[in-house]
Amino acid sequence: MSGILFFCMGNICRSPTVEAVARAQFARANPAMGMASAGTENYHEGDIADPRSIAVAKARGYSLSTHRARRVRDVDFVEFDWLLAMDRVNLDTLMRRCPPQFAHKLALFLPFAGVDAPDEVPDPYYGKARDFEIVVDLAERGVAGLLQRLRPTHAAHG
Question: Any idea which residues carry the catalytic annotation?
Answer without folding.
Answer: 8, 14, 123
